[in-house]
Amino acid sequence: MRIFQHPRRIVYQTLRYQLNLQFPPSFIWIQNTQLHHDVQTPHCIEQLEAKFNREFKYPWVLLNEEPFSADFKRRVSVLTDAPISFGLIPREHWFQPDWIDEKRAQEGRNRLTRQGIIYGGKYRNMCRFNSGFFFQHELLLPYKYYWRVEPDVRFFCDISYDPFLYMQDNNKLYGFTIAMPEWEPTITTLWGTIKDFINENPQYLSPDNSMDFLSDNAGDTYNLCHFWSNFEIADMDFWRSEAYTKFFEYLEMTGGFYYERWGDAPIHSIAVSLFARKDQLHFFKDIGYRHSPFQHCPQGKDWRNGHCSCDPNDSFDFSQNSCLKHFMRLS
Known about the structure:
Blueprint: H1 10-19, E1 25-31, H2 40-56, E2 60-64, H3 70-77, E3 84-88, H4 91-94, H5 102-114, H6 124-132, E4 145-149, E5 153-155, H7 163-169, E6 174-176, E7 179-181, H8 190-200, H9 211-214, E8 225-227, E9 232-235, H10 236-239, H11 242-252, H12 256-259, H13 264-275, E10 281-283, E11 289-291, E12 294-296, H14 300-305, H15 324-328
Helix pairs in contact: 6-13
Protein name: Glycosyltransferase family 15 protein
């Protein structure tokens, strides 16, 4: 049972947890050293607390590959009455494995940089960690659901209902706000590797999968669509499942996270699209969200009821590059 510190809410929150929410959720925040003193960090937590968590008081778990400073902990802890934990990421889960051919990895980073791919030389460790290890962290093992939050994001609307409870009551595994194509040069061999995995492990493929979100030709090629994973509300038991564990291990042994730059967004998106039922994926159309330069702004009644501060005419949903139309055709 979770313990809430606010004395006037302890009975209400604990009772609500016992009767309604069977599995505890948490916010998860993963960042790296250079972001320790980012002014966006406390601002973003403060914003999500005001829009949602001040009422629900779900715990926060912040992870980093180096210890958080005392000053950072002090600045962040005053922003919420909810429980908050600061964790250190195990070295073997974050840093490049010794068996990776560094010369080949450097050539891959240089190639993407020459091609002008954004962050072409960065983020391999983070992508690998988010793909295969975060849900194994000791601070997250007690939790089932999580809401991923990053330092430089904005939330535009009041959230008057409980997305975690919605996920549980409707048997959802993965929720998103923005869908877009991946940079093809960062994943040149990923789809071929995944096809090999499926051919060797057909038992993991869901009969009612979302292949039509990923491919325009029944899986022959990948259309590059993925859910933008800097926002995700999901069930960690899916990542802990046999299917996803075998899937990640298969990808890991190729070195593609370092020889190319396989991102956690396509990895997560492909996995839930293939191994879960299509009705277990959810578009949170009523949660206004921005990770620069893209944003999702709710429309119509959702925009009005949420008192959203975003411009409803400025939403990535309407962009030519949005993959939302691929998701909507699943129903």
